[in-house]
């Protein structure tokens, strides 16, 4: 079992559908494999992608899978999702 899963959204930042699928897939995979931490890398940029990811993580069917979400300390371009 890996200690964490990481998904980098830089290569797919232009496609909203691909972003949603990538985030949803990594969260469900981590929950299914009992991985305690997911790193989502939207990058620093203007913050639109990070806000999209944070809004997506607030959806009820995803929210019940994790304990908390935080922006990585010292790195605004990474979102950490701590699973249950």
Notes on the structure:
InterPro entries: Smr_dom, Smr_dom_sf. This is Smr/MutS family protein. Residues 1-84 form the Smr domain. It comes from Saccharopolyspora erythraea. This protein is of the alpha+beta class and 84 residues long. The chain has a single domain, classed as Ribosomal Protein S8, Chain: A, domain 1 (2-Layer Sandwich), CATH 3.30.1370. Helices cover 37% and strands 25% of the residues. It has three helices and four strands. It has helices spanning 16-32, 48-57, 60-63, and strands at residues 4-8, 37-41, 66-71, 79-83. The chain has a four-stranded mixed sheet, covered by helices on one side. Helix 1 (16-32) links the parallel strand 1 and strand 2 (37-41). The longest helix is centred in the first third of the chain and has 17 residues, at 16-32. The two termini are 15 Å apart. The mean pLDDT is 92.
Shape-level CATH architecture: 2-Layer Sandwich
What is the C-alpha radius of gyration, as a whole number of Å? Answer: 12 Å
- List the uncertain runs: none
Q: How far is the first residue's CA from the last residue's CA? A: 15 Å
Q: What is the CATH third-level topology name?
A: Ribosomal Protein S8, Chain: A, domain 1
Number of strands: 4
Structural class computed from helices and strand pairing:
alpha+beta
Helix content: 25-40%
- Spatial order of strands in the largest sheet: 1-2-4-3
CATH class: Alpha Beta
Largest sheet: 4 strands, mixed
How many alpha or pi helices?
3
Indicate how many domains the architecture comprises.
Answer: 1
Give me the strand/helix succession.
EHEHHEE
Shape: globular
Strand content: 25-35%
């Amino acid at each position: 079992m890996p200690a964490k899963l990481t998904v980098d959204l830089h290569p797919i930042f232009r496609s909203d559908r691909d972003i949603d699928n990538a985030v949803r897939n990594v969260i469900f995979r981590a929950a299914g494999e009992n991985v305690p931490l997911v790193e989502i890398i939207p990058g620093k940029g203007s913050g639109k992608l990070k806000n999209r990811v944070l809004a997506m993580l607030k959806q009820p069917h995803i929210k019940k899978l994790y304990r908390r979400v935080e922006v990585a300390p010292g790195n605004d371009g990474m979102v950490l999702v701590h699973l249950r």
